Amino acid sequence: FFCMLRFYQCPNRFRNGRWVFLRVQGMPIVMQAILIHVADLEVSRQFYETLGIVFDRETDGDTVFYAAYLAHNAAFQISPLESPDQILGREPALYFGVENLDAVFTKLRQMEFIIIAIPQTVSFHGRQARICTVQDPDGRSVGLMELLPEDNSLP
Q: Which residues 6+ apart lie within 8 Å of 41 measured at CB?
């Protein structure tokens, strides 16, 4: 499982159609948490669970939210909007690695989520990968990628 966060405020980090992973003093940046606000907590939970994310139900005072704990104690959290005036869909675009892209894509299509780009095979750092892009319930772009086995590597 991997997660890549696209920082729109750092356009120089995306060059020639490839991601440049951010580094600080020679060390990779470790993601600690991604928190997104959602209009319908349960519909969003179902969407992200379809991608294979396993959430724990958490509370903070009277607020219920869901958190998935990833490698290195990083967390991906979905939380309800704090107010109806809060802007949706302007938070970071999300990218997730999945094990069976075609199965996940088929399930999301059956659930009638918006498809931005259908699965296709591309070159990704010398390997082949299957990618697609869907929209989460609040309009965020969510990229999905499955790295293909090494025997499908490009020369």
A: 64, 65, 66, 78, 79, 80
Helix (H) or strand (E) holding 94: strand 94-97
Ramachandran class of 42: left when φ > 0, alpha when ψ lies in -120 to 50, beta otherwise = alpha
Q: Using one digit for the tens of pLDDT, what is the confidence trace for 34-51?
A: 888 898 999 999 999 999
Q: Is the pLDDT of residue 62 over 80?
A: yes
First to last CA, the chain: 25
The answer on pLDDT for 99 being more than 70 is yes
Both tokens assigned to 65: 């939210």
Does the pTM surpass 0.70? The reply is no
- Structure tokens belonging to residue 6: 């696209």
CA atoms within 13 A on the CB side of 136: 32
Token pair belonging to 36: 């997104």
Angle CA 100–103–146, to nearest 5: 25
